[in-house]
Amino acid sequence: MMHVDFDDYSDEYSNVMKKQLGFFSRDDSYFSEYKVRITHERVRGEPGRILEYGCGIGRNLRFLHEMFCSAEISGCDISERSLRRACEEHPYAKLFLIGRDTIRGTFDLIFIANVFHHIAPHMRHAVMKTIHGLLAPKGEVFIFEHNPYNPATRRMVNSCPFDADAVLLTSRQLCRLVKTNGLDIIGMQYALFFPPRLRRLQSLERHLGFLPIGGQHYIHACKQGQQPRNYK
Questions:
Q1: How many CB atoms lie within 10 A of CB 172?
Q2: Nearest alpha carbon to residue 219 among 124, 168, 145, 148
Q3: Which among 53, 76, 106, 151 is most buried, taking Cβ atoms within 10 Å?
């Protein structure tokens, strides 16, 4: 399997995404806003420091900044060219190049969107241990991944040039990865059941989250021993 170098796609990433997501919506930013909004609704308290792990060119940073307006926003990625573009478009964010820069301190919220399917399976535990170390004692992490059981998702992944190295994770695999690396699961849901043109039906998704047919799934987790009693 080929390894995708995201430096090769940093300039064309948005155009490729618009083409890939055009079947669902003309507004490709909808999907970034959607995931950040779920995070904003589910997170406990007001995080003071937020890290997006695998921020790419910064498509999610904008919404993290808007919805968590009092938080310090940071991002990190393995693609230097992507971070250069993110820096230009999101000057409020502190950005770190994985493997070169030292990410200092811990974070109250770590947001990870569609990153782990690009990480080789044998390296995922090491990455999750790193994330555990970056999480504050009472911090929370949200991890979004494509649902391999959704045919529309699989079609999109199979036709996307920078998903050529993707190995999709089931929700069970993601749960196991989280649990074996010192995190407790607060909640797990499936999401993206409706396209943007049916966004008025979004309120129903809270009641459909147990069905494994959504376009994506996500886990809300915290360090072991910090799990709340109830999940809204």
A1: 11
A2: 145
A3: 53
User: What DSSP character marks residue 117?
Assistant: G
Fold for 6-223, please state it.
Rossmann fold (3.40.50)
CA distance 150 to 97: 33
Residue type for position 50: I
CA distance 88 to 84: 6
pLDDT digits (tens, 9 = 90+) for 171-215: 999 999 999 999 999 999 999 988 777 767 777 787 888 889 999
Angle between helices 171-179 and 124-134 (to 10 degrees): 60
Helix (H/G/I), strand (E/B), else coil: 132: helix
Q: pTM (2 decimals)?
A: 0.87
Give the amino acid at 117: H
What single string gives the DSSP state of each residue in 54-98? T-TT-TTHHHHHHHTTTSEEEEEES-HHHHHHHHHH-TTSEEEET
Q: How far apart are CA 133 and CA 114, in angstroms?
A: 20
Kind plus residue range of the DSSP H or E element containing 137: strand 135-146
CA distances from residue 173 to 145, 179, 190 in whole angstroms, order as listed: 11, 10, 14
Is the per-residue pLDDT at 128 higher than 80?
yes
Q: How many residues does the chain have?
A: 232
**Residue 126 reports pLDDT greater than 60:** yes
pLDDT at 26 over 80: no
Residue 69 CA to residue 181 CA, distance in Å, equals 30
Half-sphere exposure of 169 (CA within 13 A, CB side): 26
